[in-house]
Design goal:
Blueprint lengths: L8 H4 L14 H4 L7 H14 L1 H4 L4 E6 L4 E7 L14 E2 L4 H12 L6 H7 L17 H6 L14 E2 L3 H9 L7 H12 L6 E2 L8 E3 L1 H13 L13 E2 L8 E3 L9 E2 L4 E3 L8 E3 L7 E4 L6 E5 L6 H17 L4
Parallel strand pairs: 4-8
Antiparallel strand pairs: 1-2, 1-13, 3-6, 5-6, 7-9, 9-10, 10-11, 11-12, 12-13
Helix pairs in contact: 3-11, 5-9
């Protein structure tokens, strides 16, 4: 887990939206049909998080579900073999969940009028597919130039290839090249909102952010209310991602059984067999934020593990299903 610089901790201790079970808006009257009362949803989601084997396998973690107004249910699911407890206010590196933040930043900066070039970079089809890592003290431009991170591969141009190089190069086009971690955090907050306590541990737009589950939940609520313009753009301009079924896909970090699409810095979980159409952006360490297909609810599964993206997804989408249906999974 990335060590958080002490001089940035005050920022991350401000503007936190503290989540708790219960309360919030009346989602039962606004949400998809079925699912029963909010209390039934809370019980179903809580039971699933605490007892389903796909969730007990990823303990400890924090989960939260809410609507555009507030958190509606949440909980810390702890492990008997670990003293770690994750809460709404746990600061953690979010790896590829950073991609959704950058997509949101660009949509806001462009006032939702993305160019053809923007879509190519944010849909990971630009051919800049060689980024591996950045150093913590670099600027965005220095990261792009470091060890071939910014190299272009013509064979991948126009094809989906999941890699942070697309966003790093796009950030140069957005004029962010001279920014270090501190400046980058300030710039992203200038569009997401000063109340969104996000910072960067390395100047990598696609994977360098860290924040709390509470702060990310605030971003998701802003998407649902339309305050962040990407909320109306979720799932637009999707591209296919599975190399086993899509001739224009080269690499995706998802199991071959999952046939998802990719939109503006986020996945569309629309597999024809078991997808529910949710929008998401899971990170390698297990941070999994999502918005359901109806754009009524958001959710977060938050944890930090060496390789935990899909384990969190498997748990998180069951919690989502339990919430929407009101039936424990």
């Amino acid at each position: 887990m990335t060590r958080i610089p002490t001089h940035l901790l005050p920022l991350l201790c401000t503007a936190l939206i503290v989540s708790a079970c219960g309360g919030g808006g009346d989602s039962a009257s606004n949400g998809p049909p079925g699912g029963g009362t909010d209390q039934q949803r809370i019980q179903a989601a809580t039971t699933t998080a605490q007892n389903n084997e796909l969730c007990t396998a990823v303990r400890p973690f924090y989960w939260e579900i809410g609507d555009r107004s507030a958190a509606l249910a949440s909980g810390s699911v702890n492990s008997g073999s670990s003293t770690t407890v994750y809460t709404a206010n746990s600061v953690m590196s979010i790896a590829s969940a950073s991609k959704w933040l950058y997509g949101s930043y660009v949509a806001q900066k462009r006032r939702a009028a993305l160019t053809t070039e923007d879509y190519k970079y944010l849909n990971f089809q630009s051919g800049y597919t060689n980024l591996t890592d950045c150093l913590t003290d670099q600027t965005v431009a220095e990261c792009d130039a470091y060890q071939g991170n910014g190299d272009y591969t013509a064979a991948n141009d126009g094809k989906f290839f999941y890699n942070g190089g697309h966003m790093e190069k796009h950030a140069l086009l957005m004029g962010l090249g001279a920014m270090n971690n501190a400046a980058l955090g300030a710039e992203i907050r200038s569009q997401l909102g000063a109340d969104v306590a996000v910072a960067y541990s390395q100047p990598q737009l696609a994977g360098g952010a860290y924040l709390t589950p509470s702060a990310y939940a605030l971003v998701l609520r802003k998407m649902l209310t339309g305050q962040l313009l990407i909320g109306s753009m979720l799932g637009t301009h999707p591209v296919c991602t599975n190399p086993s079924t899509c001739p224009t896909a080269v690499f995706a970090p998802i199991p071959l059984a999952e046939k998802w699409h990719y939109s503006i810095g986020h996945w569309v979980e629309d597999d024809p067999d078991d997808g529910d159409g949710a929008f998401s952006s899971a990170g390698a360490f297990g941070f999994y934020p999502w918005i359901d297909a109806s754009k009524t609810y958001y959710g977060v599964v938050a944890r930090s593990a060496a390789a935990g993206a899909f384990d969190s997804i498997y748990c998180g989408r069951l919690i989502r299903k339990a919430w929407v249906t009101g039936v424990a999974q």
